Amino acid sequence: MNIKIIVAAHKPYFMPDDPAYFPLQAGADINPPLAWQGDNSGENISAKNRNFCELTCLYWAWKNLDADYLGLVHYRRHFSGKSAFDPKKRIITSQKLEKLFSDCDIIMPKKRNYFIESNFQQYIHAHHPEDLEVTEAVITEKYPDYLPAYNAVMKRSSGYRFNMCIMRRELLNDYCKWLFDILFEVEKRLDISNYSAYDARVFGFISERLLDIWIEKNNFKVTALPLVNLESQHWGKKICNFLLRKISGGKWGRTH
User: Fold this and answer.
1) Most buried one in 47, 126, 228, 250, CB count within 10 A?
2) At 192, which helix (H) or strand (E)?
3) Pairing state of beta strands 106-109 and 222-225?
4) How far is CA 226 from CA 118, 156, 236, in A?
5) What is the reported pLDDT for 252?
6) How distant, in Å, are the alpha carbons of 103, 150, 183 from that of 106?
């Protein structure tokens, strides 16, 4: 299998030495160059990186990279393939991926569970409700057959996150065509002029939910893998902010 996994990065960092991994500088059009290929060659949306986050790398791979299987991970966050004390040695290999794809359509990270609130509630407590209002309106107009999947995903209390995935090229083509058609229309309608730098990453946040919806609608077979985090996750702070947002019913802690 010709597998290419984009490693989205915005700073110098460790990269796996497996040939499947392809380091790609995110937002290369608006940031100082790094030693790796940038997401600003060929057909690209690199200049949108502050709002689209790692999706500028996904878009670049979709439009410019040839492979049988394509995926996206983050420089500090990877799929785990085995147990090892050194987190860098736990990163999944291309050989392991080939075996997994004999029995699944898509590889995703294990779902995050919010337990005490739905995906919809979690989003509007952490971000702007208008983001989902506009997204739902666009889906209603352009892809009404996806509305049942949208509603089902939003009512659940768990979901895939981080925009991380690996899949066959044909599936990624279908996904990206659908995803960016929706996001570019939402971009036209959503006023983010007063959003903070964090909130302005809105299209990356929305796309995390859209990936769940796309998988739900098309009933793909998913293998969910644990993650390897190469940096501290600050879980104490995250849990505290999550509970404060829940108690206050608002977005407390998003920029704290």
Assistant:
1) 228
2) none
3) parallel
4) 22, 20, 20
5) 47
6) 10, 19, 22
Beta strand 112-113 with 37-38 is unpaired
Q: Give the pLDDT of residue 256.
A: 27
Amino acid at 74: H
Q: Measured in whole angstroms, how far is the alpha carbon of residue 112 from the centre of its chain? A: 13
Q: Which of 154, 173, 170, 166 is nearest to 6 (CA)?
A: 166
Tell me if 125 sits within 8 A of 246, measured CB to CB. yes
pLDDT digits (tens, 9 = 90+) for 219-248: 999 999 999 999 975 544 444 544 454 455
Contacting residues for 118 by C-beta, under 8 A, at least 6 apart: 154, 155, 156, 157
> Tens digit of pLDDT for each residue in 74-122?
999 999 999 888 999 999 999 999 999 999 999 999 999 999 999 999 9
The token duo for 111 is 């779902």
Tokens of 209: 């939910």
Mean pLDDT of the chain: 93
Q: Following DSSP, what letter does each residue of 124-169 receive, concatenated?
A: HHHS-HHHHHHHHHHHHHH-GGGHHHHHHHHHSSEE--TT-EEEEH
Q: Give CA–CA dist 214/219, Å, rounded.
A: 8
Output DSSP code: residue 86: S
Tokens 């666009």 locate to 138
Per-residue tokens: 109: 């990270």
Q: Any idea what the Cα angle at residue 22 is, between residues 169 and 215, rounded to 5°?
A: 35
- pTM score: 0.91
User: How far apart (Å, rounded) are the C-alpha atoms in residues 246 and 204?
Assistant: 22
